Amino acid sequence: MTTADIWAALESVKDPEIPVLSVVDMGIVTAISHQEGGDAATVTMTPTFVGCPAIDMMKKDIYNAVKSLGFASVEVVVDMDTVWSSDRMTPDAKARLEKFGIAPPPTADGELTAEMLDRVRCPHCGSTDTTLRSAFGSTLCRAIRFCFSCKQGFEQFKPL
Ligand SMILES: [Zn+2]
C-alpha cells in the first residue's frame, strides 16, 4: 500500500450532502501519513462547516475506505485548527457542483467583496440576475437564491 493508494481510496468517499464530490475534491482531507510498508495509516481531515452535521459520517467513511485497503490500524484525526475555506475546493469540483444544480462558492483571491457575493450565477440558465431569498437552505452551508431570468430557485454553497 502506498500513500497514492490511500488518496485513490478517499476519492470514493463522497461528501454525504454532495454526492458528486469526494472528500478529496472538497479539500476536506488535509494530510495522509503512512510509513511505506507499514500497516498503519493516519488521515487528517478538516471539518468544513461547524454547523454541518456530516463530520462524524465522513470520518467513519474515511476510516472504512482506508481500512478496506488492508491496513491494520487506521486513525482519522479531525484537525480543528486548520480552517476550511471554500477556496480549498478545486476548480473542477466547483464545476461539478454547478452541474449538480448548486451554485458553487465564488473563488476569492483574497477578500470577498460584496459585489462578488451578490453576483451568483444561476446553475440552471447561467444568468447572474439572481437574488438572495434565504440565508439558510437545506443545510447551514447553503443559501437559497432566486433567478429572475429563468424564474427558478436554486441553492448556493456559501463561500467561507
Ligand atoms: Zn436561471
Q: How is this structure best described in words?
A:
The chain folds into two domains: 3-78, GMP Synthetase, Chain A, domain 3; 89-157, no CATH class. The chain is of the alpha/beta class. A hairpin with a 5-residue loop joins strand 3 and strand 4. The chain is elongated. The strands form three sheets. A four-stranded mixed β-sheet has the order 6-9-8-7. A three-stranded mixed β-sheet has the order 3-4-5, with helices on one face. The longest helix has 13 residues, at 55-67. The protein has helices spanning 3-10, 55-67, 91-99, 114-118; strands spanning 14-15, 18-22, 29-34, 40-45, 73-78, 102-103, 130-134, 142-147, 153-157. Helix content is 22%, strand content 27%.
Give the number of DSSP strands. 9
Structural class: alpha/beta
CATH fold node name of the largest domain: GMP Synthetase, Chain A, domain 3
Strand order of the largest sheet: 6-9-8-7
User: What's the overall average pLDDT, rounded?
Assistant: 87
Query: Span from first to last CA?
Result: 35 Å
Gyration radius, in Å: 17 Å
Task: Give the overall shape.
Answer: elongated
Architecture per CATH nomenclature, i.e. the level-2 architecture of the largest domain? 2-Layer Sandwich
What keyword list fits this structure?
single chain, 160 residues, alpha/beta, GMP Synthetase, Chain A, domain 3, 2 domains, four-stranded mixed beta sheet, three-stranded mixed beta sheet, 4 helices, 27% strand, binds zinc ion
